[in-house]
Amino acid sequence: NQTKPNQTKPNQIMEMVDMKLPSGDSDLCEEEVEGLVSYSDYFDNDNGRTGGGERFPYGSRSGSGSAFSPSSRSKISSSWRGPVSSKKVGRNKKCLVFIAILIISGALVSLTTTNDEGVKDLVENNNNFDSNDKSHLVDHGHANGHSDTPAVKLNDSIDHDDDDDEGGDEGNDDDADDATDDAADDETIVEADDDEDRDGSEEDDEKVTETDDGEDEANVDESQDKDNEKEQEESISASADAEVESKDVESESEEESEEANEDVDADAIGDKDVEADSDAEASADEDVDADEDAAAEAKKEKIIEQWGKWHFWDGDPDSRPKGDYMADFPNRDMPYDEISFSAWQADAVYVNHMLDSAAELVSRAKEAIYTEYGYGPKQDIERDALIARMDMFRLDLVDLEDPLVTEATVKTSLEQGGWTTRKSFQSLARRLLHAMMTNDTFTVVMGGHSAAAGHGNHFLQSYMMQFHKVLEPVFKRVGVKLITRNVAMGGMGTMQHSLGSKDIYGEEIDVIVWDSHMTEPDAASLDLFYRQALLGGNRKPVLWGGNFNLLRDLHLNADVDVMFPGSGMHGVKETEGLDQVQTLPFATQYLKCGINDKELCTDVNNKFRATCWIDRDDVTPTTRQQPRPGGQASWHPGFRHHQLVGRSMAMVILDAMQDAIDTWSEITIVEGHPLNDEYWHMSDVYSNIAAKVSLLDATVGACNTLKDKMPERICTTPMNGRTEFAPRANPHKTSLTSLLKPSTDGYIPESTETMLYQGPDVPNPMLMIPEGQIDVEAIVVNRRRKLSGELDLFKPLNPIELKQSLWQQNDNKNDSSTFSTRNQQLLRRRDLGEIRMGKGWVVDKKIGDCDGTSTGICGREPSNPCLLYGHMDHRGGIIGDALSGWLVFELPKIENGLIIAKFDTWHLARESKATVGWTEVNDGEFDRSLKELAPPLPDDFIFDYAIDGKITSLNLDQFREMQTVAQRVVEIFTILDKPDMETKENVEVAFRLRNCGRGCVFKFTHMYWS
Asked: What is this structure's pTM?
């Protein structure tokens, strides 16, 4: 009953039988199925898919032959863990019916042959190109040596069409899913040259649909429970349709309301008569809501008609285990045999349908990106465009063990999709699979300079935020919270954050990106960035970008997963004049210019698209707003370049996600649900990398060349850090002020600046896709209407959101503006004769939630001349002079005897605002008995530091000798380096300047310790 018989394959047939039969029925059919195994093997061999252990061909992963060998067949029946039917009758009849389906479908397969027409015929036949393919994933490295030309192209042929269920009601989504499930596990290897075999890929774009006869036969044979469930779904769907017709907005889901609100007409809102009586106002609100709902629905339906929609949901959410049942296991690596039978991970129907919808969504996202750049939809473009599309985001798989693979040989890939290794790509897919299995977070963080930060553009136009914009809806659908942080800073490299990477960049990083070529050209600083990212956090991230040789060293010596991003510029069409540019897609206009038209691409009006303010009724800036942001320099990329890089990076993640989906689907077809630990657990992976990085020989990499500037063991010892630089992860927890120890009366310095306004900004036309252009985000966000009362399982099933909320609550407790319980406890044990916090220190900080994410609201201080700019990078700190008194910190725990401070020594007197008009330390408020501990040195600078009350005083020469300028504007001071020191908690560290009045102004910006 297939419209395209040649798409039905043995593994899909076996899955059909397995899926349709309740637990126990497959045992009754085992004898009959056994007689057909040789028939299944015949299909495998007929198509050249006999296994061999390779990741992408058909067959077993162990290389022992067909995935449906007798040894595997027993697993199909014995490990089935789907829902158990309450009906125990009619099994033999069911068995006979589905064996008949097996034979008929197999016969249809055998009647269909695939001709070896080569890549040329593939290109000429548009339907053979699938937006979900991995034809741009090119393997340059193999165990048998190096190849100067691409050896193979990895291409999966899953093609799910969301439109399969468009004509039916919502209750029949499962039927459409059953049909598309049959196409969910087809992967092939496609050779790169014109004579390569195309047997598998001819089937890429075929669609599997069920005929009326097939549906009737399936309905007769399903259990009564299944019929009841379907009737219930249809009833719910009918109710939903009625609600849509009546436009009962209150029954809409919160997600639908949010989507509708995005399309609110600002003029319509402004036209509401706020002074009308309550009845009239309510009526007006209903009319506006109805208009908005109709407009949103019309727009959505138009997108659905062309692109399809998400159509998966859990039909039985109440049966799932409650609570976060994976939280008690390290890295959420819950053993598969401890997962409850009622958990969604063990429900074959749930998982298979979810994976089916996820594969469709990945395909849809990739196709939308191609179309955005003029290479789609695939059925509408010509042969040359199809070839160019394959190259635009091509990701090269290289063999770093091959000495012939060098930085020069991978250079071409940097204008395409970049490069990685096969092992690293599979590890990335494994990390994504882990996040999906556990409903965890997946975090991508970038450290870099001003160009990477996106200066000159809105923060949301930076490539990390464009990456997030496309992928966040995809991750949400599969139950994963994507966190993307742009932690780049203008005018600096990454060293100041690398020394405290665990806290400043974050503990739970899956992928970390380095992009600071202009400000950090030395390999040593970059190697420190790599090492601390791998040593400090709970996860050991994939390293994305940087230095080819360092990445090779870490990959070969410590099993570190490495990648290098590409720009995608290879596929961008050139701008050739003002008339021609208007024929190009908006995303490519003024992005690449020939020699005669370069001024068109460098013109700031074409390169940048940003504004500082949009007038609104409820907020009036107190500082005059600039017409455009600063930073629109020639060396800063424009918004289109950032968008392209973000799309190129997103394509890599989408490819890896598809690989994860394929793995999950293929393995569980044979081994059953839930997925076995060996395919997704991460703890052993993390432990292996951490151990090897900590034991790396000093000759590996370049980090150890920093030994003249800081302790050599910084390359093998995980560090903690706090700072007032922004952005940073968990900004309240990781602030430098969170370490401050209050004075006897509870005083600690704090920032007094407040935000001009709260809440979201008004819609910004500079961030909007022009009418008529491809809106990738709208395409991937799109989904069917959620039924009334339906549980939204597109959010994580575990309490991730609750956890985030608790983090925020805890963060607020650590804010310097709050006198915490911890500080009160410190006061009770403080002796009046001890070192005390001075009152002459000023906190310079960026106000708001400056965490580097797309949702962070940061920097809306009244003095800001560009309130919509959105950038969060700021070099904050605690400023004081010789009249400010002691600056006292308390470090929670010292384990490895290492303390380093970073502070600037070059600030001006006008920055030390707290001591204006003072002539004495602390303005004479309390005694200065500690001044007597060292002989006064008039006219000489004295620098005091104290660890747990033991004071060390340095004269100017000693201070300069201790000072290390590790990098431009990065001055660090190692005040403790004792590897044999015993672990100690609550270590007090204090600093003081003397004998220079207001003439010496320091800004303390970072504290690092281990």
From this structure: 0.73
